[in-house]
Amino acid sequence: MKRILAFAAIAVLCLLSIDAIAQEHGGYRKSPLKETLQSGDRVALLMVHFGTTYDKTRTWTIDAINEKAREAFPEFEVREAYTSRIVIRKLKERGIEKQTPLDALFRLRAEGFTHIIMQPTTLLDGAEMESLRRDAATMSPFFKEIRIGKPLLYDVEDSQKVALVLAARHLELSNIKKNHHVVFVGHGTYTPATAVYSQMDHIFRVSNLGLFHVTTLEGYPTYDTLLAELKAAKARKVTLVPFLFVAGDHASNDIAVDWKKALEDEGFEVGCVLEGLGQIPEIQDIYISHIRFATEYAEVDIMKKKADYAAGR
For the whole model, what pTM was predicted? Predict the structure, then answer.
């Protein structure tokens, strides 16, 4: 119990410090959005999700963080968009209309909004973020400014915060005496951003949380990597947890069926906790902090930065 409370306290302290990131770093410069607004300007916050066809998990994750954003930023008009065309199509067949980011931006422009903050609920700065930036670049001539918030795991500090939150939430499952390990299963990506999964796994290991593992369905670390680690650790019990914003199709089928059976065939006792990251209030708070950062800092144009260097500025 002391171990659980200790990690919970660390996680809370870590999250309380999230709002203290008001310092210039990386490719951002101090630029409070409110100070740039003029009479008649209107700001919209566009929450961008991959999407899901699972109604319950949509309520627990996407709808929940949209509502939290409305509560945190009552001065902004909050809208949403989905990036998955497959999800959009399937929902439309059920009479549920969802817009792509590009469609949502067109509508916001038609309604007279001048400034947009786009906050993705994606985990990594990978393919989904690249697509989002292209949509923003396409529509930037029609707005005074479009800012894009950071994904969940943008830097090492984000990964450390998430690791602490997950450790505090699932610490009771891990048990060294019973050789009970907890495995967070992410989707994976073909971009270099897949390295973040290995980074998360490493953070658990160096934080004396070796009973926690991070692996992927379609990236690295792989199932075979995980299997080798579990066997080397002489694990007997394994609990699989989605490392996904929503616990939808991948969680219900790939993780809770395919991976569960594969590990059981290897002789492990396997359980599942089908909870999406978006259901966790502390994870939602990290996204909210990224929105707040976007209201205070603007991304620096790398070409302008290079030009300044060339001019000796």
Answer: 0.90
